[in-house]
């Protein structure tokens, strides 16, 4: 087991208050002031809108001087999601794959070796399952997975030549079962997993069981907790600071500490809301779309939801109405600091 006391705790830039408006240099300095240990930049374009090599290297050098890790995002590898990222196609002068390759090369040349990617999108404003690309009707999810695997196969030689990993997120639309199959098929020498601890709940996965499944391939993370509440249409997930939701953090972190080839903990906070997304467990079509779902995972999600609901009834946890309110800026920053404190406490206990 690695020295858990050395596992760095950082933050995702997209949810760090002030980061989108003030840029990468400001973000690094503020993160350092806050006592965090790294930044997960969601896009390389945050470091340099033109992918200028000098600008990219300057940000990485500043991070080194401040003692911070830097991880960077690229773009989605599902070609059916490509039309929603026109900036990547523009980078490739009309060729989306070429634009994605440019992002990868630019990051590698700047010294960034761990790169984020994902498979699809989630339309948060749309109700029900159709907000999730998994349930698109113009193209099936299995067809999207097959197309994604083909893109990964084409990217593999470039990634190996550059010595970098492209780490696919446990995003809202994909299961850990599917991600592990994709990574094993494409090759763990070029691909890994970005483990989002709250997103796996949306696919009705026990987060601890999910951690055990993905641990051998985890090279990046998005860490946050979640509240689960039983509703007339199933279960509703709300994002929470680590330690204030349903996740058993010692049990979840233990397999990552033991087996993940590379481990940083990047807190992904909240913006203006807690993203109350549905698990439509009473919908037969929703179940049909989850061929890997086990009764054990389903039972565990119901148990966690019931447990959280009882805490709400006892007055020890916020309920549906409170969780549905807008999140003020001060509370967004507190989300990160409270998560940091809890994660460090758990890591110390594991040591």
TrEMBL record:
Domain Xylose isomerase-like TIM barrel: 28-260
Top-level taxon: Bacteria
Location of the region described as Disordered in the Swiss-Prot/TrEMBL record: 1-21
Organism name: Actinocorallia herbida
Pfam families: AP_endonuc_2
Gene Ontology MF: a single term: isomerase activity
Listed Gene3D superfamilies: Divalent-metal-dependent TIM barrel enzymes
Protein name per UniProt: Sugar phosphate isomerase/epimerase
Alphabetically ordered keywords of this record: Isomerase
């Amino acid at each position: 087991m690695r020295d858990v006391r050395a596992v760095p705790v950082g933050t995702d830039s997209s949810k760090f208050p002030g980061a989108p408006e003030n840029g990468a240099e400001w973000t690094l300095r503020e993160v350092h002031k806050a006592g965090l240990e790294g930044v997960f930049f969601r896009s390389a374009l945050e470091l340099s809108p033109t992918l200028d090599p000098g600008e990219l290297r300057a940000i990485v050098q500043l991070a080194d001087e401040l003692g911070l890790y830097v991880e960077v995002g690229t773009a989605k590898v599902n070609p059916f999601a490509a039309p929603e990222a026109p900036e990547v196609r523009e980078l490739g002068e009309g060729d989306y794959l070429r634009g994605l390759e440019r992002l990868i090369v630019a990051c590698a040349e700047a010294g960034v070796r761990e790169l984020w990617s994902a498979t699809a999108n989630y339309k948060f404003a749309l109700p029900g399952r159709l907000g999730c690309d998994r349930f698109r009707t113009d193209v099936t999810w299995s067809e999207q997975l097959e197309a994604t695997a083909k893109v990964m196969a084409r990217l593999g030689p470039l990634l190996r030549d550059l010595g970098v990993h492209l780490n696919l997120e446990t995003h809202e639309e994909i299961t850990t079962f599917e991600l592990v199959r994709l990574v094993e098929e494409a090759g763990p020498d070029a691909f890994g997993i970005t483990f989002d601890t709250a997103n796996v709940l949306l696919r009705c996965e026990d987060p601890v069981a999910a951690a055990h499944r993905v641990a051998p391939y985890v090279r990046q993370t998005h860490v946050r907790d979640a509240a689960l509440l039983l509703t007339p249409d199933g279960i509703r997930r709300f994002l929470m600071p680590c330690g204030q939701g349903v996740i058993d953090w010692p049990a979840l972190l233990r397999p990552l500490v033991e087996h993940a080839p590379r481990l940083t903990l990047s807190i992904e906070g909240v913006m203006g809301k807690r993203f109350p997304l549905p698990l439509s467990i009473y919908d037969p079509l929703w179940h049909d779309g989850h061929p890997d779902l086990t009764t054990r995972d389903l039972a565990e999600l119901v148990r966690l939801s019931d447990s959280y609901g009882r805490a709400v009834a006892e007055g020890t946890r916020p309920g549906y109405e409170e969780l549905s309110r807008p999140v003020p800026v001060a509370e967004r920053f507190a989300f990160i600091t409270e998560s940091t404190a809890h994660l460090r406490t758990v890591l110390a206990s594991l040591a």
